[in-house]
Amino acid sequence: MQMKKLIEFGRKAMFYIRVLSGYEERRIRSYRLQLQQRLQQAEERKAAVRKIPEQIILSEVKRMVEEMQALNKKLEDTEVAIHEYFKPLDQQAEEVMKMQLKGDERRKDELMEAMQRQALLEMANAEKLKNMQIQGTNTNVQEKTSRETQSEAR
């Protein structure tokens, strides 16, 4: 029992010596620093694990955007190819339309000339009728005057 007390006393004495020398404090600080580092590493791993789904989503979105851009490029290329393919047909259609427009212009001009001739003829006919009416009234007036003069002479 004495030996146990002696060992216990030795332990306590060593502890006091370590505390007084600062060894125990340094050990406690070192242990606390190790715990703090472990905690920080655990937090970093936790944040990395949380970011993994975000990174997966972002990479998926990026892949989809790249696919859409590739599809848009293909559509533009196809559109250009279609335009090039139909270019000769468009030119022919344009030439046909120009010819039709020229024909329409020609027909319009002919119709306008015919309408002008018709208007001139109608004006000439109206002038003749007017002259004939004027001559008719002149003849009527002359006949009336001659009747009146003959009546007066009687």
List the main descriptive attributes of the protein structure presented here.
2 helices; coiled coil; 154 residues; 98% helix; mainly alpha
Please give the structural blueprint:
Elements: H1 2-21, H2 23-153
Coiled coil: 32-81
Keywords: Coiled coil
Region (Disordered): 131-154
Q: How would you sum up this structure, described in words?
A:
This protein is mainly alpha-helical and 154 residues long. The protein contains two helices and no strands. The protein has helices at 2-21, 23-153. The protein starts with a helix and ends with a helix. The mean pLDDT is 87.
Q: How would you summarize what this structure contains?
A:
This protein is mainly alpha-helical. The chain is built from two helices and no strands. The chain has helices at residues 2-21, 23-153.
Strand content: under 5%
Helical amount among residues, as a percent range?
Answer: over 70%
Rg value: 60 Å
Characterize the largest beta sheet: strand count, sense, and whether it forms a barrel: none
